[in-house]
Amino acid sequence: MNTSYYLIDEAALRRNLEILRGVRERTGCKILLAQKAFSMFAVYPIIAEYLDGATASGLFEARLAAEELQGENHVFSAAYRAEDIPELARLCDHVVFNSCAQLRAYAPQVLAAGKQAGLRINPECSTQEGHAIYDPCGEKSRLGVTRAQFDPEVLPLLSGLHFHTLCEQDSDALETTLDAVEARFGEFFPGLRWLNFGGGHHITRPGYDIPRLERCIDRIQQRYGLQVYLEPGEAVALNAGILRCTVLDIVENGGKIAILDTSAACHMPDVLEMPYRPPLRGSGLPGEKAYSYRLGGPTCLAGDIIGDYSFDRPLAVGDVLEFGDMAIYSMVKNNTFNGMPLPSIALRTLDGTERCIRSFGYEDFKQRLS
């Protein structure tokens, strides 16, 4: 298979899902796939074996889950278009609103369809360190209703509340957040049916404190009789995929620079947005090994830089490199800036066979433009 391509490892995916299923079985919580992080629907039948359904960020993801993944279907958006509400009410079991105004306007349609309406709350409890772009509790956040803006008169429309404040964090941050949620909104829990803890829980990361997570879940379910939902995205496919690419050229300007047939800007945009340095098989930190290189993409963006790495031997044109943890926030965010081809998508099955699920060509690029 020609590079570049994403390769998802079924065995690694199932290992993550086994951990999540264990949390479900021990606590009775429900866990949904957050499609915004991972939407490779070719493996949705596998995910359906372990999880309770999926959550969407809008109409298209809601349709994808309805078509490809069995189980509950939830949706949250910072704002909905009026014309989308009838279809969302048909497709989704829970429709979560971001303001009391939209809840009042559209919840009657959701309830008339026999579905449940929820409201996202902002507990004003920031636990982020260095990731302001991902902090829903930051100053002037547009995500979630604060206690001051919460109108108790909407309670008859509500089945539950939703909060999402974490990003790649452990359960100690969840516990801190949960204290704030209870302090600000706990008085409204009686009469509700569920509380959604949102995403950002790095449950499948080595060292994650699962017992503390389960205590948080039990605390809410036992104290208030609410059904707890979790919506992890990264945890489902964490370290379950790689991005294979090839060295196209090597240039020199104050050091050696390898230009690859993959792009940070197009194929791994979180490298620039987060930012972070993705793991690369067989490499070390700059200067750690004998030969150091800056790795970048072929686009015209000067900042299309993946990172600085070192190797035991010199890189050569034609070498194939493997970046790790490329299942999450990769396929869902990639783009065709500069006419870059989209990477193919492949799956390594349990018997070790690698097969191409989907490849992309010129028409995929062209049809997006006019």
* Whole-angstrom Rg: 22 Å
Average of per-residue pLDDT values: 97
- Ends: how far apart? 30 Å
**CATH level 1 name of the largest domain:** Alpha Beta
Multimerization state = single chain
CATH topology value of the largest domain: TIM Barrel
Helix content bin: 25-40%
Q: What coarse outline follows from CA principal-axis ratios? A: globular
- Total number of strands: 16
Largest sheet: 8 strands, mixed
Query: What order do the SSEs take from the amino end to the carboxyl end, as H and E?
Result: EHEHEHEHEHEEHEHEHEEHHEEEEEH
Overall tally of domains: 2
CATH architecture of the largest domain: Alpha-Beta Barrel
The number of helical elements comes to 11
**Computed structural class:** alpha/beta
Strand content: 15-25%
Low-confidence stretches: none
Q: CATH homologous superfamily of the largest domain? A: Alanine racemase
Protein name: Carboxynorspermidine decarboxylase
Keywords: Decarboxylase, Lyase, Pyridoxal phosphate, Spermidine biosynthesis
Organism: Faecousia intestinalis
GO molecular function: lyase activity
